[in-house]
Structure formats: structure tokens, C-alpha cells
Amino acid sequence: MIVYLIFVFNNINLINKYFKMNNIKRKFKELDNSVYGHLLIKESYADKLEKISSFEENHIPHSFKKSILKEIWDKEEEMLNKVSTNKFRSKEDVNQWLIRYWQFCENKFYPRKAERHAYRQLDYDINETCEIIEKQKVTLLCINDSDVLDFDERVSLLLDSLNKILGEKVRLKSN
Predict the structure, then answer these.
(1) String of b and e for 33-53 (b: at least 16 CB within 10 Å)?
(2) How far, in Å, CA of 100 to CA of 94, rounded?
(3) How far apart are the first and last CA of the chain?
(4) How many CB atoms lie within 10 A of CB 120?
(5) pTM summary value
(6) How far apart are CA 63 and CA 110, in angstroms?
(7) Residue 133 half-sphere exposure, CB side, CA atoms within 13 Å?
């Protein structure tokens, strides 16, 4: 978790280096608020801020534009070359969220609702997670691993739930 927070901090610092809050706010007003509402910038008091401090994080797939990656690379080549050659994570690293944030700031992304998506960790109530799978309550479910003593048992329960719904959808076994 600490490493993740360091990445977010580094990403936000880089965003604030290249984007001014008043320009970003202007672009956000162009967005369809029925999709994101106030969630894009976490702070409901964003009008009073001079810099961005965070974005809402959704564990759903995000599309990245190659042109944005190229733009960031052109501006921060030395840093990104260093980050991409690190064998292990370091406190100077950024991650893929930087591209997402940049796209938000330039209003070059396609908004999508996350209401039919769910995020769970392996240490959450496993029966509830299995119910989400079996009753197909969401269209996309992200399950992150975590330190649990009964890891194999939990994974087995999840696989059983997945096999139940896949067994209903796929009648023929593949080789």
C-alpha cells in the first residue's frame, strides 16, 4: 500500500508540474456530469484549490491513448527511461495511472460509469464475494490478493463460484 501511495504522490506531482488547476476546471466543466458527477476530482471543494491533490481511483479497465504516452515521454524522457529500467519498484517511480490522470487533465478520454463494477480484496468477506460472482451482480469484478492465512481455501471458493457460472454458460468442455 505504501508503494502505491508513493506512485500516486509522484503521479500527482508530475501532473501539477504541467497542468494548472484553473485550466483543468474549465475542461472538466465540458464533461458529461451524469457519467462522473463530482468524482473525477475527489474534492468537492476543488474550486478553492490551486493544485490537484488526488483523483478518484476505480479498479476498472481504462483505455490509454498512445499519443498521450508519447507526449508524457517527450516531456519526461529521462525520468520515464529510468523508471522503465528499474528491476524493482523505487520511491521515484510513477505508474500507469499517470497516463490516466494526464488524459483527464487534457479531457482526452471517454467517460464510462463504474456502477456495474466492483472491487474486492481477498481478505473481504469471501461468501459475499462468491455471491457477487454467482448472482452476477456486476459486469466486471476486480479481486486483489491480500495477506490471508487461508489463501488456498479462499481461491478455491472463488474458483468454485466461477466454475458454477461458467458451467451454466459453457456446456462443452474445451481441450
Answers:
(1) eeebeeebbeeeebeeeeebe
(2) 12
(3) 40
(4) 20
(5) 0.72
(6) 8
(7) 22
How confident is the model at residue 116, as a pLDDT? 83
As a whole number of angstroms, the distance between CA 134 and CA 139 comes to 12
The per-residue pLDDT for range 106-147, each reduced to its tens digit, is 888 877 776 788 889 999 999 999 999 999 999 999 998 888
What's the CA gap between 27 and 95, in Å, rounded? 24
CB 161 within 8 A of CB 130: yes
- The residue type found at 94 is V
**E strands, 89-139, in order:** 117-121
- CA dihedral of residues 78, 79, 80, 82 (deg, nearest 10): 90
Cell numbers at residue 70, please? 508519447
Distance CA 8, CA 159 (A): 32
